Amino acid sequence: MNPLADNPLETRSDAQRAVVDLFDPLETHFSPGRARMKPDARGAHFPDSAAELEGFSRPLWGLVPLAAGGDDAFDGWSSYRTGLANGVDPDHPEYWGEAPDYSQKHVEMAAIGLGLALAPEELWDPLEASDRENLVAWLSQINEASLHDCNWLFFRVVVNLGLRAVGADHDWDLTQETLDELESYYLEDGWYADGPAGERPSDYYIPWAMHFYGLVYAAVAGDDDPERAARFRERAAQFAAEHRHWFAADGAGLPYGRSLTYRFAQAAFWGGLAFADVDIEAYDLSWGEIKGLWFRNLRWWADQPIFTDGGVLSIGYRYPSLKVSESYNSPSSPYWGMKAFIPLALSQEHPFWRADERPLSETADLTVQEAPKMAICRDEEAGHHYALTAGQNSHYLEKYTKFAYSTQFGFSVRSRAPGIDGAGHDSSLALSADGSTYRSRLSVTDASVEGTTLRSRWEPWDDVTVETWLVPASPWHVRVHRLSTGRQLHSAEGGFPVDKTGDDQPDRHSHEEGEDGALVRYPAGTSGIRSLRGSREGTAITQDPNTNLVAPRTIVPTLTATHDPGTHWLVSGVTAATADRDAAWDRPPQLALEDDRFVVTDADGDELLRLPRSGSDR
């Protein structure tokens, strides 16, 4: 059941109805005391008490703006207050419990803090005095505990915003110290790192966390802290000019990084700009464009099979799959996406709601972004929107270190299946010493952006070093690898993964496999990889099911080879196109050797990359 199936998602009232319709399937999963909610029996790495609190709190990210905006379509506030009072009562069997250092419960406190700040008439004013005391005591634990040095620090800020708004005890000095620490994560051009610079990646946590909470702070406390609020608004406007390139024309966001099961949280940043009245016009954006980005993303998600039979959001990305999730994803984690509905707190007279939706006025074919070390390609002829990346280090591995991430084709994670089938080798160069266990670029020792070329260095073994250059040349991109190895290696380099739907009908799919190339065609699209230097065999490899973010069954055109100890140059051209589009397979890039230099050109002979060839090579 899709709760949004009959909702056009075109107006403010449509969005208001969406919040209620998304909440309704959860109703039967609440505990008798209403303090806990658990849609199914799966768990996360933290205790059930925190996971069930997550189920209670996360819907508030949508319900609170709904109430703040004056909508009375949700009639469950009395039940929510009952759950809130029971959850913070140490004598009640559904008490949420203590929140020690680094507890997941601190995360879930933030939605309650937002409720106190924006909708006190629902979550504070009607409470008994004893319930208020319990609530303040429980929330105040966040001021005594250690939090992870990342966006988690904003949870303390939002909690104190809420306590301050209702005149309860709070620690404003600690809040300001925490904000100072968060601002130290700022990089440039609107970008933050999700933690100390150089230690944490730049990903969706920048728009839907670092900026989002900063905009909440600017809107709620901006009059008392105008200089900081101005910085948050200015940085968000700068970031908007960059982040718009992560979205395809149909509203789909670029699948990249962790926590993608939060799904339409991708739209939260666009709504946050409106909530904080950011001056977007200074960066050549209009409210019509922002509204279009917001609504198109919501509509794209509403069209995907992301719900269970009971209408509850599933774990996964474009379909239910635990294989692509993280250990902190509980059954209620996807409801973080309710943050997208923050503009419902605004009146219908706000410019965001009064504007007519518009497409983006500036959609560059190629956009290079320094902070995430990306080159974002928008290939209208191929119907393909993707990013090349130099890689960022994270223990979430292939969610940050593949060569490419595609809105249409997604990416795949590794599984426990042996051999290359389970190696998640799409958009990767996978290497194996035994022909069974593969290693790819799962961390980088050095990464840089040089013009439109992305360079990285990675060391899968102590005696193996790979230096990689990625060059955009839509509808192709070129990969150059300098592989130095002290051992014999097997390699498998994958192109973009393609949905295998249609493989039971011979007339709907085809493979071209042979020396130096592989091309696969399916109803979902075409994907190919060609070797431009060195002898490698082209083959099509089926991946372990449910490891890709956008399709449960995928196939990858792949180049395979064996390499003796020494230095090897591997050069490939990779292309892909969605259904009924041209992948330009017959017009690949070219490689030439000039004066001991490699020169890569596109099919028209325009130079893309010139590299010195040093040392012995094969």
UniProtKB/TrEMBL annotation:
Lineage: superkingdom: Archaea
Pfam families: DUF2264, DUF2264_C
Disordered: region residues: 487-517
DUF2264 domain residues: 11-359, 370-582
InterPro entries noted in UniProt: DUF2264_C, DUF2264_N, UCP014753
Compositionally biased region (Basic and acidic residues): 500-512
Transmembrane spans: none
Official protein name in the record: DUF2264 domain-containing protein
The organism's taxonomic lineage, starting at the top: Archaea, Methanobacteriati, Methanobacteriota, Stenosarchaea group, Halobacteria
